[in-house]
Amino acid sequence: MVMLGIRKILITFLFFIILWQNVGFSQKKVNIVLSEKVIITKDNRHNSFPSVVKLKNGEIIISYRKSNGHLSPIASAVYKSSLDNGKNYNQEIIVDNGDDFIKTKYGIRNLIINELSDGNLLATYWVNNGQNGSAYYRMSTDKGFTWGDRREIKDDETCSSLVGIEGKIIEINNDYILPVFIKMDINSKNMRAGVMISSDLLSWTFYEVSRKRSNNNESTILLDEKQNEIIYFYRNVTENALYRSISKDVGRTWSEPENVSFSGYVQSRPDVAFYPDKDEMYLLYREGKYQTGAIAISHDKGNTWERVTEIQKDSTRFTYGSMARINRNKSLLIYSSEKNANGESSSIKSRLLRINKKSDGE
Q1: What average pLDDT does the segment 323-330 reach?
Q2: What is the pLDDT of residue 16?
Q3: Are the beta carbons of 196 and 205 closer than 8 angstroms?
Q4: Which H, E and C letters describe the chain, residue by residue?
Q5: Which one of 72, 192, 221, 336 has the lowest number of neighbouring Cβ atoms within 10 Å?
Q6: What phi and psi, each to the nearest 5 degrees, are found at residue 358?
Q7: SS3 sequence of 90-128
Q8: Distance of alpha carbon 1 from its chain centroid, rounded?
């Protein structure tokens, strides 16, 4: 009986050793290499809320808000471009000078420039006026040298007093799908997260992802063409949690949002980049309130995450970031930082992220 018991223990022990080895071999290990930072812009203004996109011709567009302070309504929407993958940048170009909004509470926010399938550039942003706010876009048909008239992004709902947008627009089945991180109902004060969808950029319809009496803030959407799915990520500010929802019908209905938070995820909008050919997602986020920028990786479309590196180790405060793929193994990280809560010494920086597979011996 004693020998039989020992034999069972040994068999169980060997089983768990084999299982542990198999799990270890199945994990996709990566080695992250970061280049030295490049200063994109640094002056006596407050530069923040950056976003990056790579155009089909290889040009890099860095869009951001330039203002007199984080809470100042004196703000404009501007961008810089690079023709050498972020080594050098051209002069600032103004998309919207914001003069019409200097009497609002906080002015222009969250400029994001998207390249549409027809090659035109679409700049989206919103204006924060406290309990009221509106979203807008402008179009450029000459790669950003000139911009058309400002147009409001709104639906037919009369109960919404605040519409805030953030995140890159995607095109699918002749629809434009834009993430909305907050749409506030005047009567109930519910904060809804969702998407605005339009087929002509003139008429828009809102489709809800989440509704809570708290601020569903900061969102991004991704298209998985293999599975014909749209994946929506947002951070709930009150809970300080990262949520994910999936749509299989081009954004009309969404799965119940699931909490996919992980150890280390604390602050900042969830800027997620999806590399479908590698089945990997990368999350750029702020770790700790106004502290270090960090990157996490997911191999299951954002259901689980693992922190892989931090990107900033100096004494400044990481505020917001964005990333765009340069080639198969490189991405360009853009982030804003500042000296203190007043936004002093704010600047926008970039770093190249190289992603290498680790060998089994490493």
Answers
A1: 89
A2: 41
A3: yes
A4: CHHHHHHHHHHHHHHHHHHHHHHHHHCCCEEEEECCCEEEEECCCEEEEEEEEECCCCCEEEEEEEECCCCCCCEEEEEEEECCCCCCCCCCEEEECCHHHCCCCCEEEEEEEEECCCCCEEEEEEEEECCEEEEEEEEECCCCCCCCCCEEECCCCCCEEEEEECCCCEEECCEEEEEEEEEEECCCCCEEEEEEEECCCCCCEEEEEEEECCCEEEEEEEEECCCCEEEEEEEECCCCEEEEEEECCCCCCCCCCEECCCCCCCEEEEEEEEECCCCEEEEEEEECCCCEEEEEEECCCCCCCEEEEECCCCCCEEEEEEEEEEECCEEEEEEEEECCCCCCCCEEEEEEEEEEECCCCC
A5: 72
A6: -80, 145
A7: CCCEEEECCHHHCCCCCEEEEEEEEECCCCCEEEEEEEE
A8: 61
What number of residues does the chain have? 362
> 179: which 2 tokens?
């993430």
**pTM (2 d.p.):** 0.86
Whole-number Cα distances in Å, 295 to 153, 209, 224, 284, 315: 32, 25, 21, 5, 18
pLDDT at 6: 52
All residues at 6 or more sequence positions from 345 whose CB lies less than 8 Å from its CB, including other chains: 42, 316, 338, 339
Angle at the Cα of 279 from the Cα atoms of 285 and 351, rounded to 5 degrees: 40
Through-space distance between the first and last CA atoms of the chain, rounded to whole angstroms: 44
Provide mean pLDDT across the span 165-184.
89
Condensed to tens digits (0 to 9), the pLDDT of residues 43-60 reads 889 999 999 999 999 999
At 28, list the tokens.
């996709």
Which residue's structure tokens are 């002015």?
107
